[in-house]
Design goal:
Layout (H helix, E strand, L loop, with lengths): L1 H44 L1 H12 L2 H27 L3 H30 L3 H36 L2
């Protein structure tokens, strides 16, 4: 029993950097969401994108999974790489890389997930992951709203004589 706890806590400790990177990426995505949402809505309204979505939705779930995972396997490491590029002092290059990676996520990965969502969520591990992502999104939204309310309250109190 003690050995299992030690293994579990050691494993959790080893996963901490990965969790931190994922949290940073989710926070960046949530911050960028209001900026890119109009672009995604416009892109989604294109008839070619609608037809592509219908085609993807008609495919077997394993094919949809591959179509979904390949761009993620490219975009997500690019986002982390962009942070390293920025940290090394190449801010413009890093911002371009992260912008392109987010663009790939927003336009391709999100559309693929939306088109194949019903079939993709039949994978238990993916449903579990998406439930965790939704929990983090809700937490970020709550934190954002709480922070905004605090700032508004502070600004209102400063404006009153």
């Amino acid at each position: 029993m003690i050995i299992k706890r030690q293994r579990r806590s050691a494993w959790q400790f080893l996963l901490l950097p990965l969790r931190l990177v994922i949290a940073v990426l989710v926070i960046i995505s949530e911050i960028a969401r209001p900026v890119y949402r109009p672009l995604v809505n416009w892109f989604s309204s294109l008839s070619v994108v609608k037809h592509f979505g219908e085609f993807v939705g008609s495919l077997p779930r394993a094919v949809i999974l591959v179509l979904f995972v390949v761009p993620i396997a490219i975009a997500e490491p690019l986002k982390v790489y962009a942070l390293f590029v920025i940290a090394r002092g190449h801010v413009i290059s890093g911002l371009v890389i992260i912008a392109l990676a987010h663009l790939m996520s927003f336009l391709l990965v999100e559309r693929l997930f939306h088109a194949g969502r019903e079939k993709l969520l039949t994978y238990g591990w993916l449903k579990w992951t998406m439930d965790r992502v939704e929990t983090i999104r809700n937490w970020v939204t709550e934190m954002k709203e709480s922070t905004m309310a605090t700032v508004r309250g502070w600004l209102e109190s400063r404006q009153r004589p």
